[in-house]
Amino acid sequence: MLFERGIDAVEIITVPAKPAALEIVNTFIQEKLQTIDCSKHIRMQLKLAVEEIFVNISSYAYHPGIGQVEVGVLIDSDPPTVTIRFLDQGHPFNPLKQPDADISLSAQDREIGGLGILLVKKTMDQVNYTYENGKNILTIKKEIE
């Protein structure tokens, strides 16, 4: 899957799909965000979304094995947006097809799981999933103005 047109800056890293690599991913993305005028609030929303997605990939995509995750960041100026794409070759899984967590229930009455992807869906402007050529591709987009 290619990034969209109007690219001002795009960079990609590939890391092991394991929780210890989260720090590398966070540093990579935060360095890219430092190159643009992006509020602290949006940076935090992006950080939480990235952590949720990466931890899920590293915990479940290749279970019980370990694979790779490609993380790409696109900075676009027209309109000002940040797009982050996660690509893995793990088990096919579309988190967007899962039911949203029922946040009206108490923690004791609510089923485990689903809060993280709900947070991602609520804080990002776009969240898309495709499965192409044996690869899970999850893309999040956030307007920065």
What is the secondary structure topology, with strand pairs?
Elements: E1 7-16, H1 22-33, H2 40-61, E2 68-77, E3 80-88, H3 115-123, E4 126-132, E5 135-143
Antiparallel strand pairs: 1-2, 2-3, 3-5, 4-5
Helix pairs in contact: 1-2, 2-3
Q: What would you say this structure looks like, in words?
A:
The structure is a single chain. The chain has 145 residues and is of the alpha+beta class. The chain has one domain (7-143): Histidine kinase-like ATPase, C-terminal domain (Heat Shock Protein 90). It has helices at 22-33, 40-61, 115-123, and strands at 7-16, 68-77, 80-88, 126-132, 135-143. A five-stranded antiparallel β-sheet has the order 1-2-3-5-4, covered by helices on one side. α1 (22-33) packs antiparallel against α2 and α2 runs antiparallel to α3. The two termini are 26 Å apart.
State the main characteristics:
single chain, 145 residues, alpha+beta, Heat Shock Protein 90, 5-stranded antiparallel beta sheet, 3 helices, 5 strands, 31% strand
C-alpha termini separation: 26 Å
What composes the largest sheet?
5 strands, antiparallel
Morphology call: globular
User: What is the chains' assembly state?
Assistant: single chain
Low-pLDDT runs of 5+ residues are none
The assigned CATH architecture is 2-Layer Sandwich
Residue share in helices? Answer: 25-40%
Q: What's the arrangement of strands in the largest beta sheet? A: 1-2-3-5-4
